């Protein structure tokens, strides 16, 4: 990704409207949304950008050889762009994991404090059993939420490894194939492929994958 694309990608992330954000959790300190954005929408915009650039090559260059070379150059830049975006996704996943751990710890501390208060007033309160039941349900729900979040993080990490393997094959083996790569949170159709490159440095597999 060149410096212009990097700036544009960052601006795309920062300018997404609030209704396009996935996560609706609010930070109690700042009162702001946590900020998880639909990064696949951004990747889709970049896909359209590169597809347009490739389509314009035929109009900008008359020589067939120049057309093929330019399309190959754009495809290489596209792959490099994807790799850098995947690195950013890895950082996002790590940040989400750390944020999730911090939230769980904070909630555990609050629950511990609440449990101590309930224990101290147990004899005086006629609603002690109901309060404890509510707290237990909250703990159970938190544990379930933590498990779901951890599974989602693992799925995202697996998808990132799959994308990196796909890029490695393209860069080192000159093959663009999804064989033996399984995705959980994304679909193969979401992954842009340099379909207009006619050189033998990119081997495109046109099979449909049911993952």
TrEMBL record:
Coiled coil: 132-173
Keyword presence, Coiled coil: yes
Keyword annotations of the record: Coiled coil
Name by which UniProt lists this protein: Viral A-type inclusion protein repeat
């Amino acid at each position: 990704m060149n410096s212009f694309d990097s700036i544009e990608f960052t601006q795309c992330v920062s300018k997404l409207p609030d209704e396009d954000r996935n996560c609706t959790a609010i930070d109690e300190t700042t009162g702001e949304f946590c900020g998880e954005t639909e990064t696949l929408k951004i990747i889709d915009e970049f896909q359209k950008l590169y597809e347009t650039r490739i389509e314009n090559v035929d109009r900008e260059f008359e020589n067939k050889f120049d057309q093929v070379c330019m399309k190959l150059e754009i495809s290489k830049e596209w792959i490099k762009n994807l790799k850098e975006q995947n690195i950013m996704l890895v950082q996002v996943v790590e940040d989400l994991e750390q944020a999730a751990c911090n939230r769980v710890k904070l909630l555990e501390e609050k629950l511990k404090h609440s449990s101590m208060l309930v224990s101290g007033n147990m004899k005086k309160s006629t609603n002690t059993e109901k309060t404890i039941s509510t707290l237990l349900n909250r703990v159970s729900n938190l544990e379930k939420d933590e498990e779901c979040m951890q599974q989602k993080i693992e799925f995202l990490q697996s998808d990132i490894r799959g994308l990196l393997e796909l890029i490695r094959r393209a860069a080192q083996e000159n093959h663009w194939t999804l064989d033996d790569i399984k995705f959980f949170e994304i679909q193969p159709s979401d992954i842009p492929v340099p379909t207009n490159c006619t050189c033998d440095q990119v081997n495109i597999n046109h099979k449909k994958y049911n993952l």
